[in-house]
Amino acid sequence: MIGLVATTRNGRRRAAHLAQLWKDATLYPGKPSEALRGAWADCDGIVVFLAAGAAVRLAAPLLADKRRDPGIVCVDDAGRYAVALAGGHAGGANELASRVAEALGAEPVITTASESLGLQALDSFGAELGFEIEAGSDLAGVGAALVSGDTVRLVSDRRWPTGPLPDNVVRGTEDEPDENACESATARIVVSDRLVDEAGPGCVVYRPPSLVVGVGCSRGATEDEILNLLRATLRRAGLSGKSVAALASVDVKADEPGLLRAAESLGVPVRFRGARELAGIEVPNPSSVVEGAVGTPSVAEASVIAAGAELLVEKEKSRNATVAIGRLPVRGKLRLVGLGPGTDALIPPMAREALARSEVVVGLEQYVERIRHLLRPGTSIVTLPLGGEIARAERALAEAREGGSAALVSSGDVGVYAMASPALELAGEDVDVEVVPGITAAQAAASLLGSPLGHDHCSISLSDLLTPWEIIERRVRAAAEGDFVVSLYNPRSRGRDWQLGKVCSILLEHRPPETPVGIVKNAYRDDAEVSLTTLSDLRPEDVDMLTVVVVGSSQTKLVAGRMVTPRGYLD
């Protein structure tokens, strides 16, 4: 819940706007001190529409512990700045400041060192993956080393899609330390589900949600018996209970009170599967007694394997319960990112966020160079040449399949004549894929021309590298007969110089020679060129691969020098 506190007319107006815009926001009325105390007790974050000094004086008596205090964001009366005043990381004020700024058109002011340097904050590291910080971790000490540029050693059982880390973080494992990390490291970051490297001075330990526990039990098995067996089994195996992501069992136990309460106590879900499915899974310790009772020779071990986990601990028993433990595979992250055309201003916020959270960026060099300044420190860059679409997709997928986070970038929209299609053709269910849209080249060209896409339209690529010309020509004829506005991509290259002329002749069979045509080269770049002509006067030699040609329909017209395709509203 977000609390809103305001006293001035401008502040109340902006607070009311946020309360209407956000479902999780509540405006606290009354005097500022009373309103702030009320919000402090109820809310995770608070937006105070006051001068920073006044906000500090009001909040100071309420501050107790940064791990429990709500984050505070202060907005000036003019609505120009949203300042993360307190609780930047733990209280979520940094994120809230950005959210407020986006809603109000303000500028977020974030002064914590990690954000200022473009680094990940340790108290939110891996948060989206479900990492839990082990009690006693030295967040302040390791954070200071990270910001100061001291060598920090990252020790992890496996690779996780946590995003980029700066160059002063060197990677290794407990079994195979990184040669560069040893004596020079002043601090350590540990990501592990094993009970090793307990948190302490100079070390932060994260527990990933990597374990699944299969549970079989007799009717009436108690919560305490199940939890005691589980905890003893974890302890003997040297595994952390904080890494338990789920319990699993057979569906006939879906109403077993002790099992359900055990899961509730752990704060994890229980996943149930049918006895027939579990019975088909080969396990090391089947039981005919269990099969006679529930229809499958294994519950605990089979439930672990059915969850897709590697069986680490075979079943262990108490009087009324059995447990087995498995480790889940890491699912890497592939982000397919559209960068839009030309200027940075057209790179969507979603794309910027995706780039910031990806440890590897793959793409054509000309595209990667456009966004290099937006990448966080430590981001790896992989550029592969034009024509290597499949190789680029495979490289990005390989990074994700190893447990990493990769961004595969394209100009325009990644799903339009770009990298989303080949990547998704190759991607399976073993990685998470996020498609981040961008502004297409046709949209950018259209905006510079006026509104040529105001009615039905289509886009056709004239490149025959991947599509036979016969098919392209058939699609052009269909578009001509249907009287669509047509955006032509890849209209002409040095080795392909006749196709555009052929397309024009086909279109002229179905629409007037004076049909408006827009030619946009390098849209929204410093050397952008925009010109208007007609279908009969179009000169193919004026066009290249960096050009989008927009051919109007029979209804498209020029109004004050701008292409317009009417919607019909003025008829």
Helix content: 25-40%
CATH first level of the largest domain: Alpha Beta
Main sheet, how many strands, which sense, barrel?
A: 6 strands, mixed
What is the third-level CATH name, the topology of the largest domain? Methyltransferase, Cobalt-precorrin-4 Transmethylase, Domain 2
Low-confidence stretches: 175-184
Q: What is the CATH architecture annotation of the largest domain? A: 2-Layer Sandwich
Keywords: Cobalamin biosynthesis, Methyltransferase, S-adenosyl-L-methionine, Transferase
GO molecular function, one term: precorrin-3B C17-methyltransferase activity
Pfam family, one: TP_methylase
Pathway: Cofactor biosynthesis; adenosylcobalamin biosynthesis
Compact overview of the structure:
By secondary structure, the protein is an alpha/beta fold. The protein contains 18 helices and 29 strands. The protein folds into five domains: 2-111, Rossmann fold (3-Layer(aba) Sandwich), CATH 3.40.50; 125-207, 3-Layer(aba) Sandwich (Udp-n-acetylmuramoylalanyl-d-glutamate--2,6- Diaminopimelate Ligase, Chain: A, domain 1), CATH 3.40.1390; 211-327, Nucleotidyltransferase, domain 5, CATH 3.30.420.180; 332-439, Tetrapyrrole methylase, N-terminal domain (Cobalt-precorrin-4 Transmethylase, domain 1, 3-Layer(aba) Sandwich), CATH 3.40.1010; 442-564, Methyltransferase, Cobalt-precorrin-4 Transmethylase, Domain 2 (2-Layer Sandwich), CATH 3.30.950.10.
List the helices and strands and how they pair.
Elements: E1 2-6, H1 9-21, E2 25-27, H2 32-42, E3 45-49, H3 52-59, E4 71-75, E5 81-86, H4 93-104, E6 107-109, H5 113-116, E7 132-133, H6 139-148, E8 152-156, E9 169-172, E10 187-191, E11 203-207, E12 211-217, H7 223-237, E13 244-250, H8 257-266, E14 270-273, H9 275-279, H10 288-294, H11 300-306, E15 310-317, E16 321-327, E17 332-338, H12 349-356, E18 360-363, H13 365-371, E19 380-383, H14 389-401, E20 405-410, H15 420-426, E21 431-436, H16 441-449, E22 450-451, E23 457-461, H17 469-481, E24 485-489, H18 499-508, E25 516-521, E26 529-534, E27 547-551, E28 557-559, E29 562-564
Parallel strand pairs: 1-2, 1-3, 3-4, 5-6, 8-9, 8-10, 10-11, 12-13, 13-14, 17-20, 17-21, 18-19, 18-20, 22-29, 23-24
Antiparallel strand pairs: 4-5, 7-11, 12-16, 15-16, 24-27, 25-26, 25-27, 28-29
Helix pairs in contact: 7-8, 17-18
